[in-house]
Design a protein that fits this description.
The chain is α+β, with helices and mostly antiparallel strands. The chain is built from 17 helices and 12 strands.
């Protein structure tokens, strides 16, 4: 807990660092989240670090973090560097907007991703679930060792692109598409630039910076064409207003009240591509990481699937609501392996939280993973037990604090894609468990957490063994 004696940042502890560079050399490794976890062990839940003199507060206290997240947008904002980099790439959307601009973006985005609309998008999720199922059936016949992280990435890319603006891709079947190739250029560059100590590209364009510019131009062209087409469709077919077939249409409908410019619509469609792909596919990969080590859980998911639907996959959206155990599997995987283990905030004004005074302009790293795997909040915290999320079955209700879960953030800026992501995860987890057993082809300890823009399992290799029908 936060020490009640501490009331100034200057009084906070600090891990060991170097005099001039501070903690930068240790932090700038490829697994930043694990460095933070080690420091939490060394210094406790609240401490400070500095990068070449620039100070950062790190908090792993769930209550403290929750209060900061809830004080947005007035009290706190995202790190200004995120906005700087995205705007430079022409992206002005809900993720990087702040203050009143954020409020304008948030309402229509959240509406466009609400339960009613996700239900309308469900045929897209189902279609891609069946497509990847067929691919895995082929893999299982060939006894192929599958890099599931790559496969799930294709699954979420195809779904997100079609839901975002109606663009049909078939990345699952490796039908290479220039749009996809451009996206693959953009994502790592955003990651590299957000964490770059010096913005070299502003003074000198390297080959990769020029490639990025070309890709951004191509994506922009495609998205603007789709904006024009969607506007025409909505004008010609007013019925679409009741059940928009994609996010862009839903945004344009909501937009009748908000009056976004085309640039802002573009920014939000692009944001959705960015926010919805890696996060969901990496969470799915972690789900498979645990399922492959827990055949008893796979069996239970399969029994539930057989009770809920007779087809190959959950054929209607209502099935998803009934797949409570598959949903608990997804939740448990996100508790143990949140793909966004930390969030970055900056204070907009002087704030006092739990007797700690945070001056305006303080940069704060919110480490959320430690609490999700701590015995103060969950019994047997490192065990994979989906039952803990099934109220009537939970064998360990003694320590069960769902309110420390931050996999989707918290407060007014929590993830608006949460419902969509959970729907994708439940559909795929249930379908795969219905058809296959999973065998881990590498030792679990060789599967490492790897943090880039999000956290994913490196070296996850699995074979899919077909289930013999009853
Ligand atoms: C398992 C999958 C996902 C995870 C773990 C995840 C996680 C997160 C987290 C931690 C945040 C920051 C929340 C905060 O600041 O409090 C966020 C924001 C956001 N996410 Fe997700 N996300 C996922 C899927 C999606 C999907 C599928 C979409 C849309 C298609 C999406 C769209 C967004 C947007 C637009 C924001 C910015 C919200 C704002 O600033 O108001 N996410 N997400």
């Amino acid at each position: 807990m936060v020490d009640s004696q501490i009331n100034e940042i200057n009084d906070l502890k600090s891990p060991k660092g170097t005099f001039l560079l501070g903690h930068l050399p240790q932090f700038n490794t490829y697994n930043k989240h694990q460095v933070l976890e080690r420091w939490v062990e060394e210094c406790g839940e609240l401490f400070k670090i500095h990068f070449v003199g620039k100070e950062f507060v790190v908090s792993a206290n769930p209550d403290f973090n929750n209060k900061m997240l809830r004080l947005r947008p007035e009290g706190f904002k995202r790190f200004s560097k995120i906005d700087e980099i995205l705007k430079e790439m022409g992206v002005d959307g809900v993720f990087n907007a702040e203050g009143t601009a954020w409020k304008r973006h948030r309402k229509p985005t959240a509406e466009a991703l609400n339960v009613k609309n996700v239900k309308a998008y469900y045929p897209i999720i189902l279609d891609k679930t069946k497509t990847i199922l067929e691919k895995f059936k082929n893999y299982s016949q060939q006894k192929a060792i599958v890099n599931v992280q790559k496969e799930f990435m294709a699954f979420t890319i195809d779904i997100t692109t079609e839901i975002a603006f109606g663009h049909k891709l078939d990345t699952i079947n490796d039908k290479s598409n220039s749009f996809q190739n451009h996206l693959e250029v953009i994502f790592p560059m955003i990651n590299a630039r957000v964490t770059a100590p010096i913005p070299i590209w502003r003074y000198f364009k390297r080959k990769k910076d020029k490639t990025l510019d070309d890709s951004l131009k191509s994506i922009e062209k495609v998205i603007y064409e789709f904006i024009d087409e969607a506007k025409k469709r909505l004008a010609e077919n007013p019925k679409l207003k009741e059940a928009p077939s994609n996010f862009l249409e839903a945004l344009l409908i909501e937009n009748e009240d908000v009056n976004f410019t085309d640039e802002e619509i573009y920014g939000n469609v692009f944001t959705m591509l960015l926010a919805g792909e890696d996060t969901t596919s990496n969470s799915l990969s972690w789900g498979l990481f645990y399922l492959a080590q827990h055949p008893e859980v796979v069996h239970k998911v399969r029994e539930e699937a057989k009770e809920v639907y007779t087809e190959d996959a959950p054929n209607i959206y209502e099935h998803i609501e009934d797949l409570k155990y598959a949903s608990a599997v997804a939740q448990e995987a996100m508790r143990l392996k949140p793909t966004t283990p930390q969030l970055y905030l900056e204070s907009n004004k002087d704030v006092i939280i739990d007797k700690v005074s945070i001056p305006k302009g303080t940069s704060i790293i919110l480490q959320n993973k430690v609490a999700q795997t701590h015995s103060d909040y969950f019994s047997n915290p490192n065990d994979f037990v989906p039952e803990r999320w099934m109220a009537s079955e939970c064998p360990m209700h003694k320590n069960h604090a769902p309110n420390v879960m931050r996999a989707f953030g918290a407060g007014p800026r929590y993830c608006p894609g949460m419902h969509l992501a959970k729907t994708e995860m439940v559909a795929l987890i249930s379908t795969l468990c219905k058809h296959f057993d999973f065998k881990l082809e590498v030792k679990p300890e060789t599967i490492r957490e790897r943090f880039e823009f999000t956290m994913y399992p490196e070296n996850l290799k699995i074979t899919f063994i077909p289930v013999v029908p009853d």
